[in-house]
Amino acid sequence: MKHPLFVKLAALAAVIVLLLIGLGLIEGVVHDRQRYRSITAQSVADSLAGPQTLMGPMIHSACVETWEVETGKGAELRMVEQRREFMLTAMPEQLRLNTGAAMEERARGLHKVNAFNLKAQVTAQWASLASLQPASTMKNSRMNCGAPIVMMAVGDARGIRTAQLTLGERTLALKPGTFHPAYTRGLHAPLPESLRSNTDGLTATLELELVGTERVSIVPLGGSTEVLMTSGWPHPSFTGRFLPSEREVKADGFSARWRLSSLATTAQADVGSGKPVCISSHGDGASEQAPGRADCADSFTVAFVDPVNPYSLSDRATKYGLLFIALTFVAVGLLELMGQGRHAAPLPVHPVQYLLVGSALCSFFLLLVSLSEHVPFGVAYAMAAAACVLLLGYYASHMLGSLARGIPLGAGVAVLYGLLYVLLQLEQTALAVGAIALFLVLTAVMVLTRKVNWYGLSAAAAPRSALAGSAQGGAA
């Protein structure tokens, strides 16, 4: 064979293509498991309650204005009644929410979903209810308005466990629904008609217990809104239009406080125009998802996230699979190359042996995702890495002809697994750490091969191939 080195490189390229196909199949398995977890989360939400939203309390009243207009002429002259339907809304001047969330883990099979039990004390104050006074738009029109209704909208009404509304010193009987055309899920209580002309202000207090899954959103509906949330969950994610002005996250939970003014948010105008609150849920009203931020009411969200999601971490790990294979193949090639010309030099490594080494590396990712479904991710990672390091170290000792060459390869693979685990734990600096580590590996390879005569390798490979062929003929 004239160019055995190039033939071997072509065979290694084919091996790498096969291993890439295997990595792609493993990545597909990870994505399937992620999809199953999403289906499980949706199943729990369908059976319990989905992500929740708190909006209110606010007071509204449906009105109808009617008037008559003349149509026709002469004998056909007649009066036709026309009407205009509209809604009057009174937003609170002061809105205070004191909430505490207790986590309740729910599981379906292997998959777990973070559910919560939220206990909220909501206090709303109105300076006056002048906005509930209807104004005629036509001369001699007649105005008819329904009784004022105080309402509280939620994302998923199935999550309401208990609720008690106090107006001043009086407790009101709550009923399901809101009688609001845009935010239909929640609860309400009719108010006396006499309150429409109340100029002394009004205070309502709502005690609410609400269950949901994964996250809760709050609409800052007051002229001044203050929200205090506490929970024993140590991994909150604060998203939405507003971050908390104060927050403290500890190992045993978190507390967060928001202070917002209507000068900083368009929530009152958004709710007045019926814009939905955009959260990832299904249903109507306050939990409906809108296409863009401009079409959504202002809100902020607290998500009870799991920072060690085994599927997302496994997915990130598989993206380093090609790098693992390439670096390991380089290490094997270096050990094969550096042993040439010495006594008891290692046997030439066959492409099939490269394929087996790469297959062992690929199996690590499959072991990782399967074990992480049963044990914590760190334990699963250690078990899968230890199994692969021991296997590769044992196999490399025979493949390279001595234990002294197999152990360094196993140690190098162990270092790679350690580096990968560090990268998986990092978020902001993962790219920088990975780039520096790759540069150091490249530096080491260049230093170790600085005196290699690459042109001489092809010439030296031919006699070895011929010698191997004659040895096989003699054995025959």
Please describe what this structure looks like.
It is a single chain. The protein is of the alpha+beta class and about 475 residues long. It folds into 2 domains: about 5-40 and about 310-460, no CATH class; about 50-60 and about 85-130 and about 140-305, Sandwich (Immunoglobulin-like). It contains 9 helices and 17 strands. The strands form 2 sheets. Strands 1, 2, 5, 6, 9, 10, 12, 14 and 17 form a 9-stranded mixed β-sheet that branches. Strands 8-7-11-4-3-13-16-15 form an 8-stranded mixed β-sheet, with helices on one face. Strand 3 and strand 4 form a beta hairpin. Helix 4 packs antiparallel against helix 5. The two termini are about 20 Å apart. Mean pLDDT is about 80; it is low at about 280-290, about 340-345 and about 465-475.
Q: What share of residues are in beta strands?
A: 25-35%
- Which CATH first-tier class of the largest domain would you pick? Mainly Beta
The CATH architecture of the largest domain can be named as Sandwich
N-C termini distance: 21 Å
Look up the CATH topology of the largest domain.
Immunoglobulin-like
Largest sheet: 9 strands, mixed
Q: Compute the CA-based radius of gyration.
A: 35 Å
Secondary structure class reads alpha+beta
Helix and strand run: HEEEEEEEEEEEEEEEEHEHHHHHHH
Number of E strands: 17
Bin the helical content. 25-40%
User: What is the number of independent domains?
Assistant: 2
Low-confidence stretches: 280-291, 341-346, 465-476
Overall pLDDT, averaged? Answer: 82
Number of helices: 9
Shape: elongated
